[in-house]
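Blinded run. Sample ID left blank on purpose so nobody reads anything into the name before looking at the predicted structure. Input follows.
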Amino acid sequence: MPRPRKCRFVEGVPAVRLFKPQGIPARQLPEIYLLLEGFEALRLSDLEGLRQEEAAARMRVSRQTFGRLLAEARRAVAEALVKGHCLRIEGGRVRTAAGAGDLPETAPSAESGCEGSPPGGAMKERIAVSSEGRDLDSRVDPRFGRAAGFLVIDPETLSFEHLDNRGARSMGQGAGIQAAELLARHGVTVVLTGYVGPKAYQALAAAGIRIGQDLEECTVREAVERYREGRVRLAEGPHRPPAGGRP
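Blinded prediction complete.
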């Protein structure tokens, strides 16, 4: 089984958790998600001016992990600003320091710890499916890292948005890691796809994204239905393709 994800400690939660361009209703805009641990990394580094070693100690993570959280947070903020999207601060698996206040409903409570699912299923699921097309009846793209794109779906309403994956597809190496970062910035909690390699698996697991594999022989809609019915087994490690198997 994969190692349980370690807690990231935060000293509080933001009073305002949604930012958007002026004059455009939020419902009309794509959303970029900044996880609570990313918000904390930004606060410690860019507002308080702490060195990474000090900030990592405050969050009780390694310096390498803190550096990655900070880079992902800065990229999420930059993407929202440059593209004029909503920036929503929520999600992640964090605990607050004693007396720092309650966490929002989208994250586990301070008392719940960080292993496993949030109590009562409080974190709203956002399912990403690697897709060859732009609608629910498109075929699942079997390649995670080099998928044509992803449909990010609300499993309750089946409303969705399309994420273009051209940036990752054009890369010589690291396509899976790039695709995982794209999904993390959009608040994805589960990905359904065909094949996920070791490096992409590690990147998804580090972002707290659960993985359903071997779903290439169906449509996006069918993959989501299987997941909702409990017929998708979540991966406990990277996929091992047969010799000469899928790229």
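Unblinding after everyone has recorded impressions. Confidence is low (pLDDT under 50) at residues 99-113, 115-122, 242-247.
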